Amino acid sequence: MNGKGTEGHRLNRLFTREQIASIVQGLADQISRDYDGRELVLVCILKGAFVFLSDLIRHLRISAQVDFVRLASYGSGMKTCGKIEITKDVEIPLEKKDVLIIEDIIDSGRTLRFLKDRLALLKPRSIKVCALLDKKSRREVEMKADYLGTDVDDIFIVGYGIDFNEYYRHLPEIYYVTPIDHSKE
Ligand code: IMP
Ligand code: MG
């Protein structure tokens, strides 16, 4: 792929559109079963989870409210560490609601730990996590998805809403990034 921001590395396909669709359908089926008759609010973490959320809600067979949060973390480059802050908060009252956080990838676990603890202060009836991908080997704090698409190795993922320096969110498939070693060419 050519264009600004895309030099020096290669994209390797990890999941096709069909594989992603089947993962998302499976998650939506489980959620539809488990939350039938409940007051479900999906809280999507911007920006990475917006494509996942938009596919997931269209496969649900139950009604759900949708809200968004955006978090900023201060650390070096690709790693979440240090202080996490909320830069866009939920707007729907969550008291007595069944909250399901929608996340693209769990890595260290710090982002979800922070958000789950913070949303718990709003006194929801329940609070669970649905993540598309999980890099379990990278975990630094305890965090487990209640609904998980699939595990991935310690690789850098892009596509399907997930970015590298804000690029590649538009790709309909999921890829991992590797550096191009020009010395071998
Ligand atoms: P954590 O707080 O370390 O668990 O980081 C989770 C956040 O880091 C996710 O919401 C993503 O935004 C980002 N992230 C983690 N791994 C990747 C990756 O492989 N590609 C792109 N973003 C990632
Ligand atoms: Mg994210």
| Mean of all residue-level pLDDT scores | 94
**Spans of 5+ residues with little confidence (pLDDT < 50)?**
none
Bound molecules: inosinic acid, magnesium ion
**Sheet bearing the most strands, described?**
6 strands, mixed
Q: Fraction of residues in helices? A: 10-25%
> Which strand order do you get reading across the main beta sheet?
4-3-2-5-6-7
Written as H for each helix and E for each strand, in order along the chain, the element string is EHEHEEEHEEEE
Secondary-structure-derived class = alpha/beta
Number of strands: 9
Strand content: 25-35%
* Through-space gap between termini: 18 Å
Sum up the overall morphology in one term: globular
Jot down its keywords.
single chain, 185 residues, alpha/beta, 6-stranded mixed beta sheet, 3-stranded antiparallel beta sheet, 3 helices, globular, binds inosinic acid, binds magnesium ion
Detailed description of the structure:
This protein has about 180 residues and is of the alpha/beta class. The protein has helices spanning about 15-35, 50-60, 110-120; strands spanning about 10-15, 40-45, 65-75, 85-90, 100-105, 125-135, 145-150, 155-160, 175-180. The strands form two sheets. Strands 4-3-2-5-6-7 form a six-stranded mixed β-sheet, sandwiched between helices. Bound molecules: inosinic acid and magnesium ion. Inosinic acid binds near residues 45, 80, 106, 156 and 157.
Topology summary:
Elements: E1 9-15, H1 17-34, E2 40-46, H2 50-59, E3 65-73, E4 84-88, E5 98-106, H3 110-120, E6 126-134, E7 147-151, E8 156-158, E9 174-179
Bound molecules: inosinic acid and magnesium ion.
Inosinic acid (IMP) is lined by residues 45, 48, 80, 103-111, 156-157, 162.
